[in-house]
Amino acid sequence: MADNADNERGFFPALLGGAVAGTSVDVALFPLDTIKTRLQSAHGFFKAGGFRGVYSGLSAAAAGSAPGGALFFSTYETSKSLIGMAAPNQKHSPLVHMAAAASGEMAACLVRTPTEIVKQRMQTGVYKSLPEALNAIRAAEGVAGFYRGYWSMIAREIPFSFIQFPLWEGLKYQWSKQQNAPVSSLQGAVCGSFAGGVAACITTPLDVVKTRLMLGKDAKGVPYNGTLNTLSRVYSDEGLRRLFSGVGPRTMWISIGGFVFFGMYEKTTSTFKSIM
């Protein structure tokens, strides 16, 4: 019987694989992310930019893609390995993958939060260029302004990863078991696409909350304050439907992105390991 232990990755393959995967998907699918962000804006889709300038904010996204992906996967694989060593009989347990994914998200969001704030404000037309965004946020809010919404991002990413990574790992394990051989990069990509789409759809309300917090204010200029406050305000003022704003583009983006992301990750790590 094949065992995914055959595919366990070291720190440096995971570091490189995460960097390549993160950059590939963020750059390739950026327009879908822009459309999703504008749909979630309190000002409405067309006031936030509509279909114009769908690459606004790409520079900010690209700056955070490689380090964010690298930090996530190196932490994820290291945590998974350490937990597996401590409890070898549980290494295929969803709880192990959940714990490893949570560790990875906590680390990666230290990089992703500042770039996400800048990116989303550029996507919705608040700022026109990366230098303008950086200078304005620093002048108005200080360094803390770049981490506005960090906990809302964690509140979105950890539930997302709790669904995505155990599902991805579980699908790979079952596929590997069925064919009595490790999954290929293509098979890993298919598993990642399905897992990402399911997780994206379910966690859309948390993504809406994160977007509103990072954009800062509602359509009347009243600031959002905290994850629960924002969730409550959107629901009470705009209804349940608004909490699922952008669910279509988000699910499509992350399904396609999951295919690219996990496919590139599997291919890069396996290639790197073969030449080490």
Automatic annotation (TrEMBL):
It is a multi-pass membrane protein. The keyword Lyase does not apply. Transmembrane segments: none annotated. It is found in: Mitochondrion inner membrane. It comes from the Eukaryota. Its main location: mitochondrion. One of its GO terms (cellular component) is mitochondrial inner membrane. SUPFAM superfamilies: Mitochondrial carrier. Solcar repeats lie at residues 9-82, 92-174, 183-271. Keywords: Membrane, Mitochondrion, Mitochondrion inner membrane, Repeat, Transmembrane, Transmembrane helix, Transport. The keyword Hydrolase does not apply. It holds the Pfam family Mito_carr. Belongs to the mitochondrial carrier (TC 2.A.29) family. This is S-adenosylmethionine mitochondrial carrier protein. It comes from Phytophthora rubi.
